[in-house]
UniProtKB/TrEMBL annotation:
Source species, domain of life: Eukaryota
Catalytic reaction(s) noted: monodehydro-L-ascorbate radical(out) + L-ascorbate(in) = monodehydro-L-ascorbate radical(in) + L-ascorbate(out)
Entry protein name: Transmembrane ascorbate-dependent reductase CYB561
Chain segments annotated as transmembrane: 16-37, 43-65, 86-107, 127-149, 161-180, 200-220
Length: 252
């Protein structure tokens, strides 16, 4: 694909993979809503339906929106680095807030019902993913958006930031799959093995979540699909005018 007026060319296959990831993500969110509506009574903040707020918020926040935040640097290839960083950070903020609502919902539901907290592998992985996500955002904000961090320090931290971002996303997807299986076993028990309609739909949801995660990670790990360095990168990446040393930063 040819570039225009000095703009970086977009790899030919990249838009199709991004579109496919969005299709999978949106269908996964819709399927989550359908599962909760058809077989779990819908969602509400009061009563037994409060629990259903948890899976919906986690799929939207820690999976779909987090995945989209990771793709920002692949999709927006010619916008200024600061604009892209702000969009990346805002998507993570929205994901965190929605996930926080889901977390509060399940703890509040357990408290009202007198159920135990944090005893399952799903809950342990979920708390770990949420805490790491929050810490990752705080550290990322401190290094890349908040004034003060030098360019050399940012450059040394960037590979760790990228690695932990992908790792937390993968952990979130795995945790969702654990929670989905746990919810099915609690309700269906032995009937799960008889191909109950709810079990089949939930299994399809699990495949959609896994497919979305794999597609996002594939896009992120294609070295030739990374945001390319630009001639004006050093000037564009001077977040709040704190960049005073070094060469132009490499792309994420």
């Amino acid at each position: 694909m040819e570039s225009h007026a000095g703009l970086a060319a977009t790899p030919r296959a990249l838009p199709y993979y991004v579109a496919f990831s969005q299709l999978l993500g949106l269908i996964a969110v819709a399927t989550t809503g359908a599962w909760l509506g058809l077989y779990r009574g819908g969602i509400a903040w009061q009563g037994v339906l409060q629990f259903n707020v948890h899976p919906l918020c986690m799929v939207i926040g820690l999976i779909f929106l987090q995945g989209d935040a990771l793709l920002v640097y692949r999709v927006f290839r010619n916008e200024t680095k600061r604009t892209t960083k702000v969009l990346h950070g805002l998507l993570h903020v929205f994901a965190f807030i929605i996930a926080l609502v889901g977390l509060v919902a399940v703890f509040d539901y357990h408290r009202k019902k007198g159920y135990a907290d944090l005893y399952s592998l799903h809950s342990w992985c979920g708390i770990l993913a949420f805490v790491l996500y929050f810490v990752q955002w705080l550290v990322g904000f401190g290094f890349f958006l908040f004034p003060g961090a030098s360019f050399s320090l940012r450059s040394r931290y960037r590979p760790q930031h990228i690695f932990f971002g992908a790792t937390i996303f993968l952990l979130a997807v795995g945790t969702a799959l654990l929670g989905l299986k746990e919810a099915l076993l609690f309700k269906l028990g032995a009937k799960y093995s008889t191909f109950e309609p709810e079990g089949v739909l939930a299994n399809m949801l699990g495949l959609l979540l896994a497919g979305f995660g794999v597609t996002v990670l594939y896009i992120l790990t294609r070295a030739d699909w990374k945001r390319p360095p630009q001639a004006e990168e050093q000037a564009l990446s001077m977040d709040f005018k704190t960049l005073t040393e070094g060469d132009s930063p490499s792309s994420q």
